[in-house]
Amino acid sequence: MTKNTDLHSILKTYFGYDTFRPLQEKIITDVLNGKDTLVIMPTGGGKSICYQLPALALSGITIVISPLIALMKDQVDGLNTNGINAAFINSSQTEAEQHAIYDRVKNNDIKLLYAAPESLSYLESIFTNTEIALIAIDEAHCISSWGHDFRPAYQQLGFLKNRFPNVPVIALTATADKATRDDIVNQLNIPNATQYVASFDRSNLSLNVKPGVDRMQQIVRFLENHTNESGIIYCLSRKSTEAVATKLLKEGFNAIAYHAGLGHEERSTIQDQFINDDIQIICATIAFGMGIDKSNIRWVIHYNLPKNMEGYYQEIGRAGRDGLASDTLLFHSYADVVQLRQFAEKTSNSEVQLAKLERMKQYSDALTCRRKILLSYFGEYLEEDCGNCDVCKNPPQFFDGTIIAQKALSCIARLKEQEPIGTVIDVIRGAQNNTVLEKGYNHIKTYGIAPEISWNNWQQYIIQLINMGYLEIAFHEKNTLKLTTLAKAVLFNNEKVPLTKPTDVKIEAPKKTVE
Ligand code: ADP
Ligand code: ZN
Fold first, then answer.
1. Among 66, 195, 63, 70, which Cα is nearest to 139's?
2. What's the 328 CA to ligand 2 centre distance in angstroms?
3. Where is the Helicase C-terminal domain (predicted)?
4. Are 174 and 200 in contact (CB under 8 A)?
5. What is the DSSP letter of 157?
6. What are the tens digits of pLDDT across the range 211-260?
7. Which of the residues 199, 234, 272, 356 has the least number of beta carbons within 10 Å of its own beta carbon?
């Protein structure tokens, strides 16, 4: 293999940059020395150059495996604009188009060839007749059922190393916890790959979590502090993207809904308008954001709880790519957890999905620095608290919550542990709705023992009791609340229970059910 190792001049000539970002040069040097590597770098960190530059420096062709045909085209166009010969091959092309590419490969006219894992069969003749310089596997987390975006077709990629033992493999991803990383290198048959993990700390993003009550009012208040600043509101469903956008329009904001149900053209128009600052606010499902390069997104709101930390990190990471201060706000709702659990239980790897959801929930419930929790998920440990999350800025204030806890726990005992959180709160507060009256709960001893505490605050207290292990939610028994042995110590031995003051959100009239 001939090598052009003047890396800086290639960086300047083809990419227009004077210096490498952290880790890029080390990774590239490893690749040029024929080593296998696994690169974990946040979105926008500069992964592409780690294989694009070696592709230019090495003789032969670099095969890039990438999951999305749509993104492939953009990348190839971008490379061609920079004077780099690149192409993609996939099932959407005619035979003639594919042959044209084979011819170019034969004539050494292509340095980078992109393909989806499903299209590997198209590469057979290239594999047999061509010098392969490097194999790059983008979005490598897709190989692992531990990852958050598992694609079965990725699992066949392990054969590449067996077939080309002397060709270096570089696997890249923006999100992979430790278990996923180990799974990636094992499945790709590159167990000795050097793992490069760039820092995931995006200290310019403020991290905030609020209870998911009166979300629209909270959003409007938030937006009043972000006049004319671009941002994204992520919602769980298409319907809610539209509902949120409609409400914001009514309030006079420049907002629009975006989801996979819109036509291709409509979506790309919206993207362009957003990038050009003609639209301020996108209310989107997670379909929005992949491949969008807008550096001045100033805030991201999660209307619903994301289903895992990887998704959450990736979505908030779309804010502040220019390095300037940006705000993120996550609404944490108990009803979302219940719904996401139901989704997770229906997936083929439900245990993994449920464990990931649990981590997400723990993050939202956290009483310690959130950034520490977020980074530790990715295997990175902060020495000091970050100072830029809501917990750091407003540390929780504990008080003696024993009496509150006793009231809740004894009410649950008297309801024979047969009711979910909403009914428990209604009974404690003496609500007069159908469920309560029909079941005769107005006659039990704990009915109406604490109406002075608002519905929302009761909800927060009970969630704290769940998180501290005094209560459990029986997800398979209509989400009823069950007492644990810890609860019995509070009820019968007068054990003390510290609680924290509820987050300040506007207090509403009692509700019948949880939002
Ligand atoms: P990723 O694939 O990790 O999300 P990209 O490879 O798309 O990130 O890079 C993100 C942005 O950073 C791109 O606009 C890219 O051109 C730019 N970039 C990459 N490396 C450098 C560098 N060494 N100096 C300046 N900009 C860079
Ligand atoms: Zn913090």
1. 66
2. 13
3. 215-368
4. no
5. G
6. 998 999 999 999 999 999 999 999 999 999 999 999 999 999 999 999 99
7. 272
